[in-house]
Amino acid sequence: MSRAAAIQQAERYFDEGGFFTDLARRVAIKTESQNPARGAELSAYLEAEMQPWLERLGFQCSLFANPADKGGPFLFAERIENAALTTLLSYGHGDVIRGQEEQWRAGLDPWVLQREGERIYGRGSADNKGQHTINLGALEAVLKTRAHLGYNVKLLIETGEETGSPGLRQLCEQNKQRFAADLLIASDGPRLQPGRATIYLGTRGALNFDLAVDLRAGGHHSGNWGGLLRNPGIVLAHAIASITDAKGAIRVPEWRPDSLTPAVRAALADLVIEGGADGPAIDADWGEPGLTPAERVFGWCSFEVLAFVTGNPDKPVNAIPPRASAHCQLRYVVGVDPADIVPALRRHLDSEGYAMVQLAPARDGFFAATRLAPDHPWVKWTAASIARTLGAAPAILPNLGGSLPNDVFADVLGLPTVWIPHSYASCSQHAPNEHLLAPIAREALQIMAGIFWDLGEVGSAPR
User: Has this prediction a pTM greater than 0.90?
Assistant: First the structure.
């Protein structure tokens, strides 16, 4: 009975095919939360797949209907060994985005797990079925080795993260005492580099919004009216261009954070962003000048135009279109007031002469920004555990560049939050050919087995 034996048990879970078998079964359940017809699959993932597996490990499971008007169900599981012990809360989401079956490479099926070399293909392999399968497999390895944990575990699995986690906040508010814990350790998102273990302590927030210029009832012939009628596409293009400079630096004052402190810069100082062999090259002259790439994506805000439409792009005609619209997004960090994001943009557009541009927050696409201090005791403890397993220190990000519902755990439940991602930036999540890298998955099992072992060592965990 030793730490090394628990890690070896986790390695065997991967090497002997247990991990692949479990993940293949889970990937085969078509849990597309963006597809209204998949309600039965969302429930089946929790009831038929996860609940029996967790009960076998000694968890007591409860299913919750979504308290919001929409969204899939939740599974809450707890394994309480002694109420006086440290309690860990973990999280995962069983839903995935649409399969996009027709767009996958020949020979691949999003619902059939398949390994080719170092890549394990399947929808949800990286986001998020593969990641919580790793964590649960590592937890089982510790139980098989030590026969107990030495702490308590609570687990929350949702089925609506890909649609903005509807109902998650309400569920945690309604069950705050029951879900209470000492910390959150969970996994989602990518590593900083494929070969370097990573910890992140929060997430950038995300707010999506729509811009539109609606000038008249219908289109008008460009030969007869060109030069006489405003073109809404041109007006909207100039309005959007006023939000940043020509190289993407944000010009809305309220969107420029004051939270890129010396401590945050120090945490980001040695971090190199790498997306792997298939990752895009970084545009060195894009974004806020004077910042490193790590500071731009983890310590600053970014404005993106996600879609822009005017006229009929598929069948253009010689007419000035009546309307133009764009779907945009601000990724923002701690230090930006989320309640003032849209009002600040309204003031900016008005001051630039674009009062005719309509502005409305999107129904979906909001996550709040969070950030745990890099010197928090649980951060130091987790980093030390990973270094003990791998012989190398992990990268520590004050927050992830993407967004997750981490504010629910940090703000509603009041937990220090430590995320350990098991994917990488070029995994094609949310796209065809999504995959998990086998070397990362195997190493992640080692990392998590070490963490779950250390958490049960007497005197190891911060109090």
Answer: no
